[in-house]
Design goal:
33% helix, 25% strand, OB fold (Dihydrolipoamide Acetyltransferase, E2P), Helix Hairpins, six-stranded antiparallel β-barrel, alpha+beta
Amino acid sequence: MNSDQIKQLHIPQEQKRRSRGSIVFIFIVVCLLTAVALYLANPSGAEGPRVMGGNKKTSSSATNTNGPVQPAKVADKIPTSNAGALLTVSGYIINRERIEISPRFMGLVKWIGVNKGDMVTNGQVVVLLDDAEQQARVTEAGGRLASSKANVAKAELDYRRIGTLATNRVESQQALDDARIRLESARAVVQEVQGQLDLVSTYLKWTVITSPINGVVLEKIAKAGELVMPQSFGGARGPSTALIALADPNDLQVEIDINEADLPKIFLHQKCRISPEAYPDKSYDGYVAEMAPEANRQKGTLQIKVQVVAPDRFLTPELSAKVDFFSQKSDRVK
């Protein structure tokens, strides 16, 4: 390499100064960016520390634009309103008794006077079955009863007449005995026919179906014109075995499956508080009314039923509710 080439590689002094100035400028920019990042990471003020990565503030008074921060799960399990509760478990509201009204014999539905949700009273007529066959049988039995009573009247006359003749020794004692037997037989026939008339009259009464309780119609199972019968012989297309389902809306319970580990905390007549999930601001008094005699092996639970003392329209069967169990023995509901 000659001297001319070496001169070409030489950097002038003013260019060296400009390069050194650029390095200083870059260093200042980096320092400023670092200071801004440190300020954002640790701001001054009373907001509390920020957590990088978009997480929420950890301060207990922190709120966001979507609403207040939700409480921890521990607070959900033991709410502050459940002070004194030994155990809180969720269950389902049920009717203590569900009554399905079925026919007592095979028949055709003639009329159903209620719909789902209707209130009914004890003794109210709710269903009428076709009674043409029963009416005919009552008429037939009534005619046979009248005929048998006429035979009794004739047998009584014969018996009295032959008795008089036997007294005068015109008829024999055997004839008198035969007349007496015919009279007793005629009276027995009357009794038999009377029983048949009572039977068909009972079937006629069974065509008029009434409500056995004051309650509400839960389900309308059969329809007018449908064939119904008291028992099922299998198959999905067979006749219905029930007409309507009823329940008393003032007799409600909460059905709960209690884990076996919590069973020592539960006892009969234990005082409880029921809060429906749909209306958490409402609560009802209750008590443990029933404990199942055996557990569910697969689930490891025991079924408990809590009686609601004074239910109202806000307690809807098959909806969920929370039940608080209280530990004080003195709080037992008698």
